[in-house]
Amino acid sequence: MSDARHAGFDDFLDALEEGEPYYLEGTEGDGYLPPRRIDPATGSQELTEEPLPDTGEVLTYTQTHVASPEFADDAPFVVVVAEFGPVQITGQLREQEADEIEMGQEVEIGIDHTETHDKRVVVFTPA
Amino acid sequence: MVNDVRIAGVGMTKFGASPERTSRDLFSQAAGEAFADAEVQPQDIEELYYGNFMGEFAETQGHQGPLMADAAGVDAPATRVESACASSSAAVRMGVDKIRSGQADIVLVGGAERMKNISTAEGTEALSAAADALWEIRAGVTFPGAYSLMANRYFHEFGGSREDLAHIAVKNHENAVNNELAQFNKAIEIDDVLEAPTVSAPFGLYDCSPMSDGAAAAVLVSDSFADEHGLDTPVEITGVGQGSDSLALQDRESMIETPAASDAGQMAFDDAGIDRSDVDIAEVHDCFTIAEALALEALGFYEPGEAISAAREGETTIDGELPVNLSGGLKAKGHPVGATGCAQISEMTKLLRGDHVNSDAVSDASVGLTHNAGGTVASCVVHILEEVDQ
Questions:
Q1: Which chain B residues are closer than 8 Å to A64 by Cβ?
Q2: Most buried one in A103, B201, B240, B283, CB count within 10 A?
Q3: Does residue A81 carry a pLDDT above 90?
Q4: Cβ neighbours of B152 in A, within 8 Å
Q5: Has B287 been annotated as catalytic?
Q6: Strands of B106-113's sheet, edge to edge?
Q7: Are B188 and B169 in contact (CB under 8 A)?
Q8: Do B120 and A66 touch (CB under 8 A)?
């Protein structure tokens, strides 16, 4: 992937680094992550930025041993999908061993950088 | 009036490792076999739909529609179809639509993939392009990783174990032992699966389909073309369905349901005018062991949470109530991504015609279902094949 910014996605990472993460809310309260212009639930193009809840809940996880070259020096690492109010976000687990994580546990969201290429990655830490 | 679509001929290379063979070489072999099986000539073909996923990555080769037409000796409109691992079943569906609509009477469909000329790490990267490039790949999600996320959630909600999944791998390897086109002709034991190196927990190596080189092709004709030319076409595609879902798991209401498959299945059942209970045998997209369970549940053969034990209970084995993946599935037959969907069609056609190595075990079977998924089932195509009187 090129080093060009990805509008919406990198804006979200910037906001995360600044401690003000957000999601996009549709007219009926459904939540989405950027970039998104159309609410698939309603067809509306009126999406507003709302603050992301401070903590999320682990929905699932996996410890990956065979990684793509982009994460070769990071492996093994734990990928988590966590639910923050109306949105679910994928990131990597930090500050906790893989065998200690539990479904439903609370996590906080942040930004770290990959070992392999020093690229920004969404991370979760125990709340 | 809608034309009925008959399968006049099928062809398929042996799946496995042939890293020096180009995809054009692989596809021309499969197409040539399909022409010979159908007893037609390449110049008879009126349209080509060809599936391929990672040609740009593995071979620096795009624009493969006309390339493959040329390789197959076909002079007709040719289009590449890309829907990740469901690419060539999407191509088959387009071919069916072309004939049903009356726009063509004879269509070549198929697909190919060359994967073993690149490293496992490069292949892992190429395959991950079927996931969401921003929200999943940037977080380190691989394909085994994505399905592992689904499997762990499945275990959490429904129970089940790695050993249940191991029975799916053992079954599919057993089915492939005598299939000379399969990548692995080797039976494995439960302990082999459980003790294999971890790829992405809970999956070990034997929970994962392999990377493979290979191609598959089929000649589809209208029933009137078959009659006029005296072609032997004992198998008809009677039902077609396709569904879509969010690319990223995080954007779905559930990570353990695959509504694209449910939609595609219901569409195909309705199209064929059959009930799922009419299906005698199925080829489903077992890219990872959990995927076979998810497919059987989405298609309505099992209630949610119940298909994980189907292989263990012997319900989906070759002598079970619903034999699944008699070809060996992706797990043992191999998974050259762009070829897989049409390979299911090729193997199912042979199973129903009676010329597959496992046909004798299911000699009464007359209705087969194929389920081919792209990504974490963000795409799914289902076909119903039926043995018909000519």
A1: 140-142, 144-145, 148, 199-201
A2: B283
A3: yes
A4: 60-62, 103
A5: no
A6: B78-81, B47-51, B106-113, B214-222, B5-12, B235-244, B379-387, B367-374, B281-283
A7: yes
A8: yes
H helical segments located in B199-288 = 223-229, 259-272
Give B288's contacts in chain A (Cβ within 8 Å): none
Percent of chain A whose pLDDT exceeds 70: 98
Per-residue model confidence (pLDDT) at position A1: 55
pLDDT tens per residue across span B145-202: 999 999 999 999 999 999 999 999 999 999 999 999 999 999 999 999 999 999 999 9
Alpha-carbon distance values, B359 to B130, B271, B311, B350, B371 (Å): 34, 26, 19, 8, 19
Rg (CA), chain B: 19
Name the pTM for this structure: 0.98
- In A, minimum Cα distance to B128 occurs at A68
Instruction: Say if the Cβ atoms of B128 and A90 lie within 8 Å.
Output: no
A10: Cβ–Cβ under 8 A, 6 or more apart, which residues?
none
pLDDT along chain B (390 residues), means of 10: 92 98 98 98 98 97 98 98 98 98 98 96 91 97 97 98 98 98 98 98 98 98 98 98 98 97 98 98 98 98 98 98 98 98 98 98 98 98 94
B253 close to B22: Cβ distance less than 8 angstroms: no
- By CA distance, what is B126's nearest residue in A? A68
B342 catalytic per annotation? no
Site of tokens 């690492």: A77
B248/A119 touch (CB, cutoff 8 Å), yes or no:
no
The whole-number pLDDT of residue A100 equals: 95
Strands (E), chain B: 5-12, 47-51, 78-81, 106-113, 198-200, 203-204, 214-222, 235-244, 281-283, 367-374, 379-387
Which positions in chain A have a beta carbon within 8 angstroms of at least one beta carbon in chain B? 1, 6, 9, 32-33, 59-72, 74, 77, 79, 81, 87-92, 98, 103, 114, 119, 121-122
Q: Which residues of A touch B139 (CB under 8 A)?
A: 79, 90-92, 121-122
What is residue B193's predicted lDDT score, i.e. its pLDDT?
98
Catalytic pick among B335, B356, B371, B383: B335
